[in-house]
Write a structure and sequence with these properties.
With 432 residues, the chain is an alpha/beta fold. It folds into 3 domains: 6-257, Type I PLP-dependent aspartate aminotransferase-like (Major domain) (Aspartate Aminotransferase, domain 2), CATH 3.40.640; 259-345, Alpha-Beta Complex (Aspartate Aminotransferase, domain 1); 369-429, Alpha-Beta Complex (Ornithine Decarboxylase, Chain A, domain 4). The protein has helices at residues 6-17, 49-61, 72-87, 102-111, 130-134, 158-168, 201-204, 221-235, 242-257, 259-278, 302-311, 336-345, 369-373, 412-420, and strands at 65-69, 93-97, 114-118, 141-147, 172-175, 196-200, 212-216, 283-284, 290-294, 318-319, 323-327, 377-381, 425-429. A 7-stranded mixed sheet has the order 1-7-6-5-4-2-3, sandwiched between helices. A 4-stranded antiparallel sheet has the order 8-9-11-10. The chain has a two-stranded antiparallel ribbon with strand order 12-13.
C-alpha cells in the first residue's frame, strides 16, 4: 500500500470546497496555501494530519521521530543543537568540522555555545576522522557536529564517528542537508547510528525550497524527540508555509514509490561522469547526486566554465576559482543529461591552469561567537580587515561556509581567501 498523504489530501479537499476564505494567507488563488484552520493541524503541535505525515517520514527514514521544518536545515540545526543543550545544560562546547554551513555558528551564538574546530585535511572538505574528532572532545563537549556531504560532493565516514560518540557518551549531530537521498541507499546517517540529523529535502528530493526533515534516532528519541519539536517552534516562523508542508508530504510518497526513479537518475549521473572523463574532463570524486568538474584541468576557471555552460542553457549549482558543481535531484528530467553532455562537449579544451590548493590555519578567537555578533560593529573593506575581530558571518553562498568566524581575528590568510571568493566588505568589532 502506498504511503498516505494526509496534508495533501486535506489541502486538495479544502480547495475543492469553494468555501469563502476569511483567513490568512492574503492570496486566494487555487494554490494549496492555508493557515491553521479547523482540520489543518498545527506544525508545532502536530496532533492531526501533520503529525500523521511526520510519522510516515519517520518510518521511511528509520527514525524514532521526524519533525518537519519549513525553514530548511537551518531551522533543523538550530533545534537539534538546542535539544542537545537542554538535555545537558552544563556543557557549553561543540566539537565541529570547520567547514560547516553558517547555520551552525549562528545557532551556537544564539545558544551561547562555543566551538572547538576540527580542521579536515583539505579546504571545504567534510572528511572528519575519529582521531581528529577525539582530539577535540573534552568533558565540556556537548556533542560532535559534522557534515555528511560537502559542497564538492566529498563524504564523511559517519559510522566510526558514531562509535566514538558512544564511547565518549555524547550525541552525534549530522548536517545531512545534501544527503536526504540516502534514504534510498541504506546509508543515511540515522541508519548509521547518528543521534540527530538535519536533511534538506529540497536539495536532492522533489520538494519546495525550505522543506527539511529533523530526524531523531530511535535510541535518542527519549532524550531529544519532545524538545526537538518544541525548539523548532522557538526558532521558526509561527506562520509556516502549507505549500512547503504539502511538498514534504508528497515527498514521502515519492520516497515510498520511486526507488526505481532514484536508480535511473543515479545511473544517468554515473554515465555522464564516464562520458565527461572520456571527453577529456577531469572530475573530483563526488557523491551520487553531483558531478564536480575540475575546470582548471580543462583550461578554465570554474567561473569561466560555468559561464560557458550557462550560455548553452546549463545552470550549475556552484562555481569557484577551480570547480564547477552540477547538483541533481531524484526529480530530474532524464533528458537533461544528454543536454548537459552536448553542452560540455561543445566547449573546447584548453591547456590546464595551475591552481594551488588553498592553505588555511584556524585564526585565533578573542571573543565568543555570541559576544562578537552582539558587539558594536562597522563595515570595513576586506583589504583593511587584517588584525580586526570578525563581527559578522560573511560567506559566499553557495557554499555558505564562513572562512573567518565571528570572534576570530582576520589574518592575512583569511583576508586572501575571502577576497578570492569575491568578498569586498566585512563586519568588524569596534571598541575592543
Amino acid at each position: 500500500m502506498s504511503v498516505s498523504t494526509p496534508i495533501h489530501d486535506f489541502l486538495k479537499s479544502y480547495s475543492l470546497e469553494g468555501a469563502v476564505r476569511c483567513h490568512m494567507p492574503g492570496q486566494k488563488s487555487e494554490l494549496f496555501d492555508i493557515t491553521e484552520i479547523d482540520g489543518a493541524d498545527s506544525l508545532y503541535e502536530a496532533e492531526g494530519i501533520i503529525g500523521e505525515s511526520e510519522r510516515n517520514a519517520a518510518a521511511l527514514f528509520g527514525a524514532g521521530k521526524t519533525v518537519y521544518s519549513c525553514g530548511g536545515s537551518t531551522l533543523a540545526i538550530q533545534a537539534m543543537l538546542a535539544a542537545a543543550k537542554a538535555a545537558d545544560p552544563r556543557k557549553t562546547r561543540v566539537a565541529a568540522s570547520r567547514w560547516c554551513h553558517r547555520s551552525l555558528i549562528s545557532a551556537c551564538a544564539l545558544l551561547g555555545l562555543e566551538v572547538d574546530w576540527i580542521l579536515p585535511s583539505s579546504f571545504l572538505s567534510c572528511d572528519v576522522t575519529p582521531r581528529q574528532a577525539a582530539a577535540k572532545i573534552t568533558d565540556r563537549t556537548l556533542c560532535l557536529f559534522v557534515q555528511s556531504i560537502d559542497y564538492y560532493g566529498g563524504e564523511c565516514d559517519i559510522k566510526p564517528l558514531t562509535e566514538l560518540c558512544r564511547e565518549r557518551n555524547i550525541p552525534l549531530l549530522v548536517d545531512n542537508a545534501h544527503g536526504a537521498y540516502h534514504v534510498f541507499t541504506g546509508r543515511h546517517p540515522i541508519k548509521l547510528g547518528a543521534d540527530m540529523t538535519a536533511d534538506s529535502a529540497h536539495k536532492t528530493l522533489p520538494c519546495l525550497t525550505g522543506g527539511a526533515y529533523l530526524h531523531v534516532s530511535e535510541n535518542a528519541a527519549s532524550a531529544y524527540a519532545e524538545r526537538a519539536k518544541e525548539f523548532t517552534a522557538l526558532f521558526g516562523s509561527s506562520s509556516p508555509s502549507y505549500l512547503v508542508l504539502d511538498s514534504l508530504d508528497l515527498c514521502n510518497r515519492h520516497i515510498d514509490e520511486q526507488k526505481q526513479r532514484f536508480e535511473q537518475v543515479t545511473s544517468q549521473i554515473k554515465r555522464l561522469k564516464n562520458s565527461l572523463l572520456t571527453a577529456g574532463y577531469c572530475l573530483r570524486k563526488s557523491d551520487l547526486m553531483r558531478v564536480t568538474i575540475d575546470a582548471a584541468q580543462y583550461g578554465y576557471s570554474g567561473f569561466e566554465l560555468s559561464r560557458q555552460l550557462r550560455e548553452r542553457e546549463v545552470c550549475a549549482e556552484l562555481s569557484d576559482g577551480r570547480y564547477v558543481v552540477l547538483l541533481f535531484s531524484t526529480g530530474q528530467n532524464l533528458a537533461d543529461f544528454q543536454r548537459i553532455l552536448s553542452a560540455a562537449l561543445s566547449i573546447p579544451k584548453r591547456d590546464p591552469i595551475a591552481v594551488a590548493e588553498p592553505k588555511f590555519t584556524v585564526p585565533t578567537a578573542v571573543l565568543s561567537p555570541r559576544d562578537a555578533l552582539l558587539s558594536p560593529t562597522e563595515e570595513v573593506s576586506i583589504i583593511a580587515a587584517e588584525g580586526l575581530i570578525c563581527g559578522g558571518i560573511t560567506c559566499p553562498c553557495p557554499p555558505c561556509v564562513p572562512i573567518v568566524m565571528p570572534g576570530e581575528l582576520f589574518t592575512a590568510q583569511g583576508v586572501r581567501l575571502l577576497a578570492r571568493y569575491g568578498v569586498e566588505k566585512v563586519r568588524a568589532v569596534v571598541n575592543r
